[in-house]
Amino acid sequence: MNSIWIFENVNLFNLLCPHKFKKYKACHTFDAYQKSDYIYFEEDAANKVYLIENGKVKIGYYNEEGTEVVKAILSKGELFGEKAILGEEKRDEFAQSIDNKTTICPVAVPTMHELMRDNKTFSLRIYKFIGLKFKKLERRLQLLLFKDSKTRLKEFLEELCADYGYDCDKTGDHIINHPYTQKDIASLIGTSRPTINILLNELKEENYLEFNRKEIRILKKSA
Predict the structure, then answer these.
(1) Which of 1, 66, 119, 123 has the fewest CB atoms in 10 Å of its CB?
(2) Neighbours of 41 (CB within 10 A)
(3) Which domains are assigned to the chain?
C-alpha cells in the first residue's frame, strides 16, 4: 500500500541528528523521558526541534471542552516540533512520551537553520518532510469533510497497515501491530470511542478484519 502519510520509511534520526555531524558531536546531548512525561506543553516557547532516538511520543492538544485530541503517535526515527523551523514562536500542541524508555535528540532552532544552510541535502529532506506533513493534514481534512465514519476508519486502517503492518506468510492477511488505543483512533478520524468499537465489530462481522488490543488483522479476502 502506498501512503502519503509516510516519509519514505526513512529514519530521520539517522539522517538529521547533529551528533552525525563532526562540528556538533562533542557538545550534543540526548534527553530521556519516562511514560507520561511531557517534552513540551501548549504555549511553551518553540525554540527546538526534536528527533526520536527510541520510544514513542504522542502529539496532541486540548479542545475548548478540555478533551484531549490526539494528532499523531510518533516512533523511532521521526521528527516533531518542526514548525519552529518556519517561525512558530509558541507551541500550539503538546508532546508527551508514552514509552518508559523514550530518548529524544533536541536540536535548537539556530542549529537546525545552520545545518540547513550548510547542507543542501539536509535542507531538502527537511522541507520535503514538512511538505509531506502538510499533505497528510490535507488528506485527513478531506476524510473528515467528505467521508462517513466507516470509510474513514477503513482508510485509516490502510494507512496503519503501511506504517505498522506486514503480510502473514501463511494466510496472506495484513497484520498491524500498532501503538494506538481505540480512543486515539477515534480522535484521529473525528468520531467517538463507542463508535469506533461498533465499527470494528461491524467490520469483524463482515469478515473484513479481526482485532484485539494491540493487533488488527485485515483478512486476505477483503484486502
Answers:
(1) 66
(2) 11
(3) 12-144 (2.60.120.10), 147-218 (1.10.10.10)
